[in-house]
Specification:
399 residues, alpha/beta
């Protein structure tokens, strides 16, 4: 089964060997309804008008493309940061939720469910539900509820119900399982806003298209600053991979642009406390799609680990699995220790405290060199407020 491009799946939702819709029969009507409607809704002038208006007036787009002068001087290359951390709610996640809430209204849905790991997608979903006056239920792992407490408070202030997932590792994987069970039991009035480029077709394509605004803006902004729309390298952290899909999207089919994906190695790939899927995973099915995922010899999903709740997922989206298998993208894994150091370095060099997910991407300078005249664009996908307690404890910032 072939795909004609790196950013567009075929009619069955496959990117190369990965993707599709592997779902229980009871979910078929939900997925089929979305599959039949999403492309025409996204293409309609009415949707584009409402989506672009909210991105501009509510989200705060376009976000800046910032030249990191001191970091560039330190590493002897040209480093730009796409400032998605400046979006309303503090991360790129809001782009997707604005698009999906508009889609849910057009499908006549009265109730929204979502899953969240780091809490940023949960906050973004609760935000757009408050904006539209729609009921919102967010599933979150019990462990993530503890380590991302500020975002749990935000969701509740916004009127959402936060339901803990207490099975398995009590993290994002288990929250996703609970959300899918809810959707099966509420097939007609509920829309499931998936937060990453994972899940059954058409979700990976839908989320990637809604996040593509990031790379569309980079092209225009880079031309203004450098006289070219084409950077040498585009770099992002990858858990499920929504921020990566967004900043890669416009460049995926241009061989002049090197794509770099940074995974969470956790405490090391040999420690069994890691989330480096491309190093530890193999082909399998998770949450409705075929992709690379971490599993034991019997095919049972193994528990991932990362200090970052947003990267603590045992798989990657099917688009990213195809990028890895086809060698279109360069995959690098970064340990907790190096990610935390990179987060501190960005804070003290540029005055920007990144989310720990984002900090993984900035640690690649320890792994590979870049030439002086090369242009690097990082997706600064989220701000570090939610991770402040983790930073505080890790660096013992308070005696």
């Amino acid at each position: 089964m072939k795909t004609q491009s790196y950013n567009e799946p075929n009619s069955l939702g496959f990117y190369g060997n990965f993707g599709g819709a592997f779902i229980p029969e009871m979910l078929y009507p939900n997925i089929q309804e979305l599959k039949e409607a999403y492309t025409s809704i996204l293409a309609s002038d009415d949707f584009k008008k409402d989506f672009n208006k909210l991105l501009r007036d509510y989200v705060g787009r376009p976000t800046p493309l910032y030249f990191a002068e001191r970091l560039s001087e330190r590493y002897q290359t040209k480093i730009y940061l796409k400032r998605e951390d400046l979006c309303h709610t503090g991360a790129h996640k809001i782009n997707n939720t604005v698009g999906q809430i508009l889609m849910a209204k057009r499908l006549g849905k009265k109730r929204i469910i979502a899953e969240t790991g780091a809490g940023q997608h949960g906050v973004a979903t609760a935000t757009v539900c408050a904006l539209m006056g729609i009921e919102c239920v967010v599933y979150m792992g019990a462990i993530d509820i503890k380590r991302q407490a500020p975002n749990v408070s935000r969701m509740k202030m916004l009127g959402a119900t936060v339901k803990p997932a207490t099975s398995g590792s009590q993290t994002l994987k288990d929250a996703t399982n609970e959300a899918i069970r809810d959707w099966i039991n509420n097939p007609t009035d509920t829309h499931y806003i998936i937060g990453s480029v994972v899940g059954p077709h058409p979700y990976p394509d839908l989320v990637a298209k809604l996040q593509a605004v990031i790379s569309e803006e980079v092209e225009e902004q880079l031309f203004e600053k450098e006289g070219t729309k084409v950077p040498n390298h585009v770099i992002a952290c990858v858990g499920g991979g929504s921020n990566a899909a967004g900043i890669y999207y416009q460049f995926l089919n241009n061989p002049k642009v090197n794509i770099i994906a940074v995974e969470a190695e956790g405490k090391g790939v040999l420690t069994r406390e890691s989330a480096a899927t491309t190093r530890l995973g193999r082909s399998g099915i998770i949450h409705g799609s075929k992709t690379l995922l971490m599993q034991n010899k019997d095919g049972q999903i193994t528990e991932p680990y990362s200090i970052s709740a947003g990267l603590d997922y045992p798989g990657i989206g099917p688009m990213h699995a195809h990028l890895f298998e086809s060698k279109r993208a360069e995959f690098i894994s970064i340990t907790d220790q190096d990610a935390m150091k990179a987060g501190l370095e960005l804070s003290q060099t540029e005055g920007i405290i990144p989310a720990i997910e984002t900090a993984h991407a900035f640690a690649i300078f320890k792994e590979r060199p870049f030439n002086k005249d090369e242009i690097l664009v990082f997706n600064c996908s989220g701000r570090g407020d939610k991770d402040l307690q983790t930073y505080t404890d890790y660096f013992k910032l308070i005696d």
